[in-house]
Amino acid sequence: MARRIAVGVLEQRLGMSERRACALVALARSSCRYHRQAADRGGLRERLRVLAHARTRFGYRRLQVLLRPEGFRVNHKCVYRLYRQEGLVVRRKLRKRVARPTRLARNRIQNRLRQTEASRPSSPLNYQRKKVSRAGFEPATLCLKGRCSAA
């Protein structure tokens, strides 16, 4: 850019030809004459913004694939640049909040488990030890739902 300006100054102030000025500054004449044509990307920007808000989990690459059938002939680099300039980002998934049981609910669950455990005949909760021994001479008895036996 600075060389192009220098060529312009040499041409206007010193009356030098373009060919001589470009040779002095070491700039190709084609580069000196080149004028960048900025493409109007307003429609593309708008469509990109609309698609990004409609598809919040899509990144710039998937949005570029969606733009192709609509007639936008752009590569992924251009879409990425516009995506960043518009401040678009992929929205993260929110974690599902799992309801934690309250203390009361937890106690209810534990009590229900105990009840189902106690209903099994082989459960250790069904055994009640009765010590009937006097001074260690008589054996202890086990009672299982009313039926007692010597242990």
Please write out the topology:
Elements: H1 2-14, H2 18-25, H3 29-33, H4 42-54, H5 60-67, H6 76-85, H7 103-118, E1 127-130, E2 141-144, E3 147-150
Describe this structure in words.
- With 151 residues, the chain is mainly alpha-helical.
- Among the domains are: 2-33; 42-85.
- Helices cover 48% and strands 8% of the residues.
- The protein has seven helices and three strands.
- The chain starts with a helix and ends with a strand.
Helix content: 40-55%
Overall pLDDT confidence: 81
**Uncertain regions: pLDDT < 50 for 5+ in a row?**
none
Percent of residues in beta strands? 5-15%
Distance between the termini: 104 Å
**Number of helices, counting only DSSP H or I runs of 4 residues or more:** 7
Question: Major sheet: size, sense and barrel closure?
Answer: 3 strands, antiparallel
Order of helices and strands: HHHHHHHEEE
- Give the spatial strand order of the biggest sheet: 1-2-3
Which features characterize this protein?
151 residues, mainly alpha, 3-stranded antiparallel beta sheet, 7 helices, 3 strands
